[in-house]
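Category: protein sequence paired with discrete backbone structure
Discipline: computational structural biology
Format: plain text, a pair of labelled lines
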Amino acid sequence: MHKQLPCPEMDEIGLTGVLCALSDPIRLAIVATLEKTGERGWGEFDFPVGKSTLSHHMKVLREAGVILHRKEGTRCWVSLRSDLDSLFPGLLQSVLILAAKDPSVRELMQTT
């Protein structure tokens, strides 16, 4: 059985919320990883933070409307929202290009 965790509808997603969610190096690295690999199991992320901190970052991204989070049995899966680009065309790509130039984000992206 699949269970989608609550996330905002398209008309509830705001630019400031998305930008705020993308303002952290760990969250940028999560988004960059998902952009590169597609849907990924929650436990497959290997960042230098504890599980509760990673869970917080995932919640911020989900509540901002950047990612989708679903449960399948005992596993949790995370993916980028495919419809975010229709709301803010090119935003995610532009942010990820710039994030790849930031040494702290680049280092985190290499750990996954």
